[in-house]
Amino acid sequence: MPFDLSIVYITLNAEKYLHRSLEACRQLAKDIVVVDSGSDDATHKIVRQSGARLIEQQWLGFAAQKQLAIEHAEHDHVLFLDADEILSQDAVNEIAVLLLGEALADAYSLPRRNWFQGKWIRHGGWWPNRVTRLVNRTTGSMKNVAVHECWETASVTVPLNSPIEHYSYQSYSELIQKADNYSTLAARQLFERGRECGRSAPFWHGASAFLRTYLLKQGFRDGAEGSAIAATIALTSMMKYAKLLEFNRGSGQ
Asked: What is the largest CA-CA distance in the chain?
């Protein structure tokens, strides 16, 4: 039973999980919008076969791309997802109960259950990894940042109980590749804000990130996968500040 809800995605070569994600969403909404930035895999075919609306848009950045997708929605209440996120059936049911009610809050968050190497990662800050995804688009907007974009609203965000299943990293190599990409974006964002740092900053930030993730947040309890995640988070933090030094010296690209 579709509701007065729009669901939006941004995609790039998202064929792996997109079909399953769209199938889950079809239980909640007829209006599904996919903004794609140049996929050359089966993404377009999957979108068209699902009956969702496909909008092709050159990459604007994470926040701007998601904001554009939200603005193309037919309804004011919007659920925005990534193509590697799948609503659990419990989440579908919980949202359906909300939509059957007489009054909706302006923002809801859901826990996100992150999977890596076939394992649910329960520690290291990867659970419950709560994210705000169901919103009234008239009461907020995407925070315009290069990385870790999020929904900004003055309204109270109501927590839901049921999770989004998240399949972000397909391999250890992808874990490293995303660390390189995100550290560059984060470093450039700091640089554009006028941030500077000392020569020892990369080491201390990297060490702090590892200790926080591996020990304080008990990433070690997730075995080899948890160790790799903690090391990659440390690498991302270290490289962010190393690249900031590079930008400050005028040698960054």
From this structure: 58
DSSP 159-203: EPSSPEEE---SSHHHHHHHHHHHHHHHHHHHHHTT----TTHHH
Over residues 170-216, the pLDDT tens digits come to 899 999 999 999 999 999 999 999 999 999 999 999 999 999 999 99
Return the residue matching tokens 């969403």.
Answer: 25
**CB within 8 Å of 166: residues ≥ 6 apart:** 82, 84, 85, 112, 113, 114, 115, 129
Distance between CA 177 and CA 75 in Å, rounded? Answer: 36
State pTM to two decimals.
Answer: 0.90
Identity (one letter) of the amino acid at 216? L
**Same domain, residue pair 160 and 222:** no
Over residues 114-132, the pLDDT tens digits come to 999 999 999 999 999 999 9
Amino acid at 180: D
Its domain, for residue 22, covers 3-166
Where a domain ends, among 166, 182, 213?
A: 166
